[in-house]
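Let us practice reading a record.
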Amino acid sequence: MNAVEPRLSDLVALDTLIAGSLAPRVTAIDLEGEYPESFLRAAGRLGAFAGVVAPEFGGSGKGLSDTIAQMARIGETCLSTAFTHWCQTACARYIQLSDNAAAKAEFLPSLASGSQLGGTGLSNTFKSCCEIERFLLTAKRVDGGYEINGTLPWVSNLGNDHIFVTGCPVDGDGRLLFFIVQCNQPGFKLVDGAHFTALEGTRTLACQFRNVRIDDSRVLAHPEQSAEYLTRIQPGMILAQLGMGLGLIRDCIRLIDSAGKTHQHINSFENDQAEELRIALADAEEKTFRLASRLDSGPQADALPALLTDVLRLRLAGGELTLRAANAAMLHQGARGYLRTATAQRRLREAYFVAIVTPSLKHLRREIARRQNNS
């Protein structure tokens, strides 16, 4: 554990909850698409979502370092659940970093406690800003708010009583609008369509907007605020994803060690060994928690672009290490890891999600190259 990672004693209650309530359900979550709602709400009561929320709004204010540590702990057992933790805390952090005091007071206490669950629908927004795909939502200014139309194909950690944050351009303006959506509001519809090879338990649904009204009280950034707001939220949103990868890598090393108890005589010929991965993991953890501490310290706005570049590079390296570790675990486990309910093959499928979730590894490489060419 790195010196800037939260103390192990702070995670004991979460570990107990994971062992008793999450570990027995992992196969059902993975193969049957069971949504771990009861675990999420219990984790919220323990403060697992509270780090990104200020104390005046019911949080602990411990910051991204605490959030990543909790997410990694969950990810050691189940990446689907770690991803829903990321969605929940990303949603809360978007609201926390806005200038909308009313939205903070209304939503942050319940998001921090887990009594309100939330998702993040900014994948299309981020990719469209980078000209990877087109915007799928549009907003029109109306009296006292905006009207939203369009469809987002995949948004995660959703339900009829959930909320999420998304963003889209405003007609006649071109700049972005960021806002909170309530899944039970008029004109909005959740549609269950795609089914995935992993992460089926994350309640990833399509979102249809048909003249959905967003009052100004639910706007996190109006067009004139959106560029600065995006710069503010993006580094932490991307860095926090490393919590998923770190947890998965730790478990892959455990799988390699387990296989070595009986098969090290042959596994010693594999390219990637546990000790090499342990060294790479320690380096990734040290860099992750150091960057998290920098973000928690509240850097000035002019420092955020350079900090984002550091985050992009680390997120890329972390995603590549996750794939490497999961591949090694699968090969070390051999045939026993190839069974339908085996942990190794599940961890390999989950690792691909770390590589393709926005920003994907190819997205990261493209953005890093763009920044290098412009420097």
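A brief commentary: Residues 227-374 form a domain with the Butyryl-CoA Dehydrogenase, subunit A; domain 3 fold (CATH 1.20.140.10).
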